[in-house]
Amino acid sequence: MRSPDSRHSLRPGLMQGIGMTSQRTRDRMADRLARQGIADRRVLEVMASEPRHLFLDEALAHRAYEDTSLPIGHGQTLSQPWIVARMTELVLEEAPGRVLEIGTGSGYQTLVLARLVTELWSVERINALHRRAGERLRLLAVHNARLRLADGGHGWPEAAPFEVILLTACASALPEPLLAQLADGGVLIAPLASRDGEQWLVRVRRQGDRFEKQRLERVRFVPLLEGVIR
Ligand code: SAH
């Protein structure tokens, strides 16, 4: 962790940014998201104010606000702004409560969620990404998100049940433990691969012992994988 002093000297430069990481660039991204159909003002405001460029390596930071996904190392990607916004909107449609994210990655989706929900848990299977995300979130004073290095397919049993479970990696089948950790009336939002290899964002709502699945939109995510990389 950085000492408070170095944090203060770092923050102004990082927060204001220059050129492609400036406030104007972020505002343009938010305008584009609104045109693309993102209607929730809370999501647009958070994405217009939070520094997405800090979640990328320096060499890619100037592309942070483009309408595209970008590599974050280890074969993984930071999702494009639209899908981050869309998934956050879907989370906010639910009763505010406990949210579990599977696939911390860079930590950007975690940050956006943390600004809008009360309590958040996030699991990542690759240690290097888990650690870097933790550093970024500490730097940005995110105090309501707990991170864990683990195979997210097992969920976070001690913190269950969750009102929302969000996957940011594509499953070929929905992991049973995640369904079991949903609160009654809660939803799991996840990219799911169909038999023909297409990916769909699905929303699965738990009603007692029943799970009702709804297909939302075509998407493209990296796969949900098993095990932990230390
Ligand atoms: N939300 C992230 C997206 C990262 S890509 C962001 O904003 O940057 C998806 C992430 O899911 C990757 O970091 C990948 O390592 C992670 N992942 C894949 N399978 C996983 C699993 N079983 N448990 C935890 N994380 C997993």
TrEMBL record:
It catalyses: [protein]-L-isoaspartate + S-adenosyl-L-methionine = [protein]-L-isoaspartate alpha-methyl ester + S-adenosyl-L-homocysteine. Pfam families: PCMT (PF01135). InterPro entries: PCMT (IPR000682), SAM-dependent_MTases_sf (IPR029063). Its main location: cytoplasm. GO terms for molecular function: protein-L-isoaspartate (D-aspartate) O-methyltransferase activity. It is found in: Cytoplasm. Coiled coil: none annotated. GO terms for cellular component: cytoplasm. The active site is at S79. HAMAP family: PIMT. Belongs to the methyltransferase superfamily. L-isoaspartyl/D-aspartyl protein methyltransferase family. NCBIfam families: pimt, PRK00312.1. Catalyzes the methyl esterification of L-isoaspartyl residues in peptides and proteins that result from spontaneous decomposition of normal L-aspartyl and L-asparaginyl residues. It plays a role in the repair and/or degradation of damaged proteins. This is Protein-L-isoaspartate O-methyltransferase. The gene is pcm.
